[in-house]
């Protein structure tokens, strides 16, 4: 299912050039049929949740674990600007439905004054929300169970053949969240760093379940900046027989450029994130692991 998250009480999108009220639209919307309203400014909307526009708070530099540097965005500029997400990225980008809880967690993670304890607590909570939604994208099958009182209950259970892959080091922060939801899931690892001479992403280590080519893969990397690291990781997975169509990339924050680069390279991949914004919190890995 191709989706895009838009919430709010004002008309925030146009469908076939006709304004539609968000109250009449489901939370998840097919972005391939939506043209983002490029002329909406913050003072023209009464609700902050749609996230179509945002002024960056405490723009970060590249002192952390993002896959490239970010350029600061002038206050008041849109987080998409003239970037037509529905046309240029396509159908594979999914955003968690925005609410006050997610917005607060995003704020704490971006706040340079937040203590490491508060940062980790908020990051773990946000990771758990992303992982839970990622699991919703995996296939289920119907099953029948017997209750303690002897009744038959028709339910569902995961189909076998799923695994996680973390891109070291920042991706390892998401492993516990996945294990908390799936105790027996197998998790592989990829280490990708910039080559000192060429400055290009280079694979230094990769270890996967031997039958990964048969599995659906939850690829974990919290911050998407340029997308180069993820692109290299997906290439390694393809070399091991994994099809891009069975890869779900779980991230916390993404830049428009990062998401676009990944999906242009692999049009069948799915990206799940909480926010698309030009300034990504690239300090994430250093602060989470205490190396800042």
UniProtKB/TrEMBL annotation:
<dbReference type="GO" id="GO:0005737">
    <property type="term" value="C:cytoplasm"/>
</dbReference>
<comment type="similarity">
    <text>Belongs to the UPRTase family.</text>
</comment>
<feature type="compositionally biased region" description="Low complexity">
    <location>
        <begin position="61"/>
        <end position="72"/>
    </location>
</feature>
<dbReference type="GO" id="GO:0005525">
    <property type="term" value="F:GTP binding"/>
</dbReference>
<dbReference type="Pfam" id="PF14681">
    <property type="entry name" value="UPRTase"/>
</dbReference>
<feature type="region of interest" description="Disordered">
    <location>
        <begin position="47"/>
        <end position="73"/>
    </location>
</feature>
<feature type="domain" description="Phosphoribosyltransferase">
    <location>
        <begin position="99"/>
        <end position="277"/>
    </location>
</feature>
<dbReference type="InterPro" id="IPR029057">
    <property type="entry name" value="PRTase-like"/>
</dbReference>
<keyword id="KW-0342">GTP-binding</keyword>
<keyword id="KW-0963">Cytoplasm</keyword>
<dbReference type="GO" id="GO:0016757">
    <property type="term" value="F:glycosyltransferase activity"/>
</dbReference>
<dbReference type="GO" id="GO:0005634">
    <property type="term" value="C:nucleus"/>
</dbReference>
<keyword id="KW-0547">Nucleotide-binding</keyword>
<dbReference type="InterPro" id="IPR000836">
    <property type="entry name" value="PRTase_dom"/>
</dbReference>
<keyword id="KW-0328">Glycosyltransferase</keyword>
<keyword id="KW-0539">Nucleus</keyword>
<keyword id="KW-0808">Transferase</keyword>
<protein>
    <recommendedName>
        <fullName>Uracil phosphoribosyltransferase homolog</fullName>
    </recommendedName>
</protein>
């Amino acid at each position: 299912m191709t989706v895009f998250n838009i919430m709010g009480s004002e008309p925030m999108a146009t469908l076939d050039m006709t304004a539609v009220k968000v109250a009449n639209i489901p939370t998840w919307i097919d972005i391939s049929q939506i043209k983002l309203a490029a002329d909406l400014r913050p003072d023209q909307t009464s609700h902050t949740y749609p996230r179509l526009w945002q002024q960056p708070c405490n723009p970060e530099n590249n002192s952390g674990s993002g896959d490239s540097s970010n350029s600061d965005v002038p206050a008041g500029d849109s987080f998409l600007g003239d970037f037509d997400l529905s046309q240029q990225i396509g159908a594979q980008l999914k955003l968690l439905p925005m609410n006050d809880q997610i917005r607060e967690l995003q704020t704490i993670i971006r706040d340079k004054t937040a203590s490491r304890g508060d940062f980790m607590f908020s990051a773990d909570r946000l990771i758990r929300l992303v992982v839970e939604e990622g699991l919703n994208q995996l296939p289920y099958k119907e099953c029948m169970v017997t209750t303690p009182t002897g009744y038959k209950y028709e339910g569902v259970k995961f189909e076998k053949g799923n695994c996680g892959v973390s891109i070291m080091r920042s991706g390892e922060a998401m492993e516990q969240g996945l294990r908390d939801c799936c105790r027996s899931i197998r998790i592989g690892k990829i280490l990708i760093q910039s080559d000192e001479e060429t400055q290009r992403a280079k694979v230094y280590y990769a270890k996967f379940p031997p039958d990964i080519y048969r599995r659906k893969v939850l690829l974990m990397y919290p911050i998407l900046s340029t997308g180069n690291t993820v692109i290299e990781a997906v290439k390694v997975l393809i070399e091991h027989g994994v099809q891009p169509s069975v890869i779900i990339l779980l991230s916390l924050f993404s830049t428009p450029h990062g998401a676009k680069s990944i999906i242009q390279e692999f049009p069948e991949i799915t990206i799940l994130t909480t926010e698309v914004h030009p300034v990504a919190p690239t300090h994430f890995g250093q602060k989470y692991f205490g190396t800042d």
